[in-house]
Structures are given as C-alpha cells and as structure tokens.
Write a structure and sequence with these properties.
Number of strands: 5
Keywords: Membrane, Transmembrane, Transmembrane helix
Strand content: 15-25%
Organism: Ktedonosporobacter rubrisoli
Structural class: alpha+beta
Order of helices and strands: HHEEEHEEHH
Radius of gyration: 24 Å
Shape: elongated
Protein name: DUF3592 domain-containing protein
Number of domains: 2
Largest sheet: 5 strands, antiparallel
C-alpha cells in the first residue's frame, strides 16, 4: 500500500510541475504579446507635421451611431500630396481617438469645426502615407493608454491560449465530428489572434 501511495504521489508531483510550467508559459507568452503595444508608442514619436485640406465632409450613420467623415488632401513636409478618405467602419483617422456619437448633433459639431476648402495643421506617419494616418491635433500616446492597451492584449491573448489548449484537448478525445469542430474552433481563434496583432502593428 505504501508503494502505491508513493507512486501516486510521484504522479501528482509530475502533474503539478506540468501545470506550473504550462501556466507559466501561457502567462509569459501573454506578457510578451502585450509588449507589441510599445510599437505604437515608438511610431507616434515619428509623426511629422503637415497640412490637411478638407475636400468634403459628411456624417456616416451605422445603426445607432454617427461618425463624422472627411475627404482631405494631406500635404507633407517634402511637398508630397496624398488624398485620403475616411473609412466608415474604422477609427476616425483625422482624430486622435475613435469618434462614435449617439446623437447626430454631436457629430455635426465636429464637422462644423473644419470648413471645406480650408487647410488645417495635422500630423502623419511618414512611413505609412496611404494608411489613413493623418490626425488633427498632435498625436499622443500616453502611459495610461499604453497600460490599458497592454492589459487588453494580455487578457485577450490569455483567453485565446486557454481556448486553443482546450480545443486541442477536445481534439484528442473527440470523435470524427468532434475533431472537425475542435480544429475549426482552434483555427478561428488563431486567425482572430493573428489578425488582432496585425491590426495593432499596422494601425498607427
């Protein structure tokens, strides 16, 4: 009986070590992935001042939200010109933050600040001129925003890793149809994760 208890205890110790190592690896991976947000901090330091000439403006309505939109020409420091049109479903490129309003009046207030045909100081990413990166007002990426983005990335990657590991465990034990479902779930989560990291990397 003593030998049986010793064998069981050894198995429990090995399982405990596996859990510690696996959990540590998941946390370390999440920490490393959250550091990708430092890229945004570095990129914002490279923004240069230019001038943006407003060509047209309107309000885009998506379900219950209103978003001010502009078409404008970016004039860079070296004389280059780039025509840019807002993307209705993306962050507002001419503002520092996303501008979604519940009331149309609030969106109209933003449009009224900038007259069509007039030029206003704006800042742009010289490495991504065609990427809708010009913003009115000097772009800033504060420590609070950095910490918030890092925390969001950490939590998201943690949840996705747990789902992937659960899918792999399901795949090993499931039948044919279960294996298909597990593989599809795992592939979907990986695709969403990679797409999110790509957006963080290229969205500044």
């Amino acid at each position: 009986m003593s030998s049986g208890r010793n064998v069981l205890s050894a198995e429990q110790r090995r399982l405990r070590w596996k859990l510690w190592i696996g959990g540590g690896a998941i946390l370390l991976t999440s920490c490393l992935l959250s550091l990708i947000n430092l890229h945004s901090l570095f990129v914002y330091q490279t923004y240069q001042q230019g001038m943006c000439t407003i060509e047209s403006s309107n309000i885009y309505k998506d379900r219950s939200h209103y978003t001010p939109e502009f078409t404008y020409i970016l004039h860079t420091k070296d004389g280059h010109q780039e025509e840019i049109t807002d993307e209705p479903n993306g962050p507002h490129p001419m503002m520092q933050d996303e501008t979604l309003y519940d009331a149309e009046f609030n969106a109209q207030v933003i449009l009224d600040r900038y007259e069509v045909g007039q030029s206003y100081p704006c800042w742009y990413n010289p490495a991504n001129l065609g990427g809708n990166t010009a913003v009115l007002g000097h772009p800033s990426y504060t420590i609070d925003r950095l910490l918030g983005d890092c925390l969001g990335t950490f939590v998201a990657s943690l949840v996705m890793q747990i789902i992937v590991i659960g899918s792999l465990a399901w795949f090993k034990r499931a039948g044919p149809f279960g294996k298909i479902g597990a593989a599809m779930l795992c592939a979907f989560v990986v695709l969403v994760g990679v797409s999110g990291l790509f957006f963080v990397w290229t969205g500044v």
